[in-house]
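WP5 quarterly update. Target: UDP-N-acetylglucosamine 2-epimerase. Source organism: Fodinibius salicampi. Length: 352 aa.
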Amino acid sequence: MLKQLKEDTSITLKIIAFGTHSSVHHGHTILEIKENGFSNIDTISSLLTNDDEQSIATSYGLTTIKFADYWSSHTFDLVFCLGDRFEMSAAVQAGVPFGITFAHIHGGETTLGAIDNVYRHQITIASELHFTSTKEYAEKVEELTGTNEKIYNVGSLSLDGITHIELVSQEKFRSKFNIPEGDYILATFHPETVDSSHNEKYAKEMALALKALSEQFIIVITMPNADTVGSLYRGEIQKLKETYPEHIVAVENFGKENYFSAMNYATLLLGNSSSGIIEAASFGKYVVNVGDRQKGRAQSNNVLNCEFDKSGILETVFKANDLGRYEGENIYFKEDVADNIVRIIKSYNETL
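Structure tokens (predicted):
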């Protein structure tokens, strides 16, 4: 979508990069934005190193303060805001007094095991245009906003062009990320942030399950987000990587092309990330969804749910492995998502 906006001569595009994009600890993905040909970028730094509850709340406040300064000196016809991160919520809330017109992508979704649920709905209420991934979520946005106007069920933007995406060859992909030969599970675990008191136990259960699975599979792990007590999971993953270097591969940030390639070549997906629920079905993969972080999010028939404990994880992984390739539909997929969003916002701009 950003590439289409950049190439449209009737639109001036600026990217505001903040949150983990400037964090070396989280992959320094501002470099990926620049490598994709974007140069009109403003950066705002407000992420703290610590990830306890006070640090997350402080980072939220700092982001709000910095965006208050930013919005006071910058004007836009429309500002896109994606998803449900606490940093995104802070940026949007700071824009409310300035009358910033926001367009929210992926609103209306429900994740009862993550505080992102609150942030997502805050962003929805503050936004004027809404681009949802399913009809169910469009109805939720209508419920939250009290109107059915300017709500567009376009499908998941992350799946745009998925049917003709050029993936990295398996040989090149494995070589780049030092993934040994053999079947591998693609795993992503984030903290459960609604009740963070259980995360020490959950991180250890994750480690026990991954250790057991590594006896049969290579485990390729993408690292956690900058969430409350995410360092607990990072610590366990680092210990696994150091103890079982031949079986555990940890990657800070794949980038979209490499992540989709990782998904395509994986035997199955494991963890509690939204990507498993939203995207994996389009690659014919079964997903073992662990715990409550994604509870309430609409699921295709490729998702198998289990409790956050070693035995439940192992039992469900072996069940998913026996099922082979998923041949059903992906409820989040629609054609031409980016095209439709750009068309809608250009039509909207003409009415201003």
